[in-house]
């Protein structure tokens, strides 16, 4: 019994070590391929400028973009004492980079919903090294946090702990704030909810509560 526990703990430590190595390599690749002295996409400037507006107390909704990402970055903008816009831009870029690296572990956990440890590590590695994701993660855009919340929402709705379902719908609501297509995530989470909960009649009341949480 004790030997089994020791082997299980060793296996967990080994997996965490591999995930750490994957994360460090991914971080190195992202930093190596990114020139932080060069300007990022125009959208990044928009998020940062809206962050400045939040600092000044303006939380009005823009016409074509949601508030989500700018609400996340504006507290970090207050940490920097600089008169150069590029420094604040890089705060957003480092934040999106950090979120992308952190997302590797939830991606592994999502893989474990369907595969064994080995293939789940492959999923995490593919996620960590996809060139398009590596590029997006260093541009200070909303995609990295959107992807993280999407992974978490799917993890929660597929969890054996049914209480986590509420968090899945809460995160779906946050995704809607981050990007308008987040409403599609709500539909996907709803489908997964009913697939994962076969007794529909008993779960309709719970689903109604989940919808209320989403709308909050």
Structural features, described:
Keywords: Membrane, Transmembrane, Transmembrane helix. Helix content is about 75%, strand content about 0%. With about 220 residues, the chain is mainly α. It has two domains: about 140 residues, no CATH class; about 80 residues, no CATH class.
Number of strands: 0
Low-confidence stretches: none
H/E element string? HHHHHHHHHHH
Work out the count of structural domains. Answer: 2
Oligomer: single chain
**Structural Rg:** 20 Å
- Class of secondary structure makeup: mainly alpha
Report the portion of residues in β strands: under 5%
Termini gap: 47 Å
- State the helix count: 11
The biggest beta sheet is recorded as: none
What is the overall silhouette? flat
What is the percent of helical residues? over 70%
Mean pLDDT across residues: 86
List the helices and strands and how they pair.
Elements: H1 2-32, H2 42-55, H3 68-77, H4 85-102, H5 104-111, H6 117-129, H7 131-137, H8 143-157, H9 164-178, H10 182-196, H11 200-215
Helix pairs in contact: 1-6, 2-3, 4-8, 5-6, 5-8, 8-9, 8-10, 9-10, 9-11, 10-11
What's a quick, concise take on this entry?
The protein has 216 residues and is mostly helical. The chain has eleven helices and no strands.
Which features does this protein show?
mainly alpha, 11 helices, 75% helix, transmembrane helix
């Amino acid at each position: 019994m004790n030997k089994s526990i020791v082997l299980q703990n060793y296996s967990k430590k080994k997996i965490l070590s591999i995930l750490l190595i994957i994360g460090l390599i991914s971080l190195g690749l992202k930093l190596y391929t990114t020139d932080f002295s060069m300007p990022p996409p125009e959208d990044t400037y928009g998020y940062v400028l809206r962050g400045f507006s939040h600092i000044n107390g303006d939380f009005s909704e823009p016409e074509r973009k949601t508030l989500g990402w700018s609400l996340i970055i504006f507290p970090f903008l207050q940490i920097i004492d600089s008169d150069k816009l590029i420094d604040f831009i890089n705060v957003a870029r480092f934040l999106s980079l950090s979120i992308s690296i952190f997302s590797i572990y939830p991606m592994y956990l999502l893989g474990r919903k369907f595969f064994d440890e080995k293939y789940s590590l492959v999923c995490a590695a593919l996620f960590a090294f996809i060139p398009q994701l590596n590029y997006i993660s260093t541009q200070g855009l909303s995609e990295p946090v959107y992807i993280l919340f999407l992974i978490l929402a799917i993890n929660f709705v597929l969890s054996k702990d049914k209480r986590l379902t509420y968090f899945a719908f809460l995160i779906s609501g946050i995704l809607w704030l981050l990007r308008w297509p987040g409403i599609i995530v709500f539909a996907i989470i709803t489908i997964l909810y009913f697939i994962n909960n076969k007794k529909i009649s008993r779960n309709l009341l719970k689903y109604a509560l989940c919808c209320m949480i989403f709308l909050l």
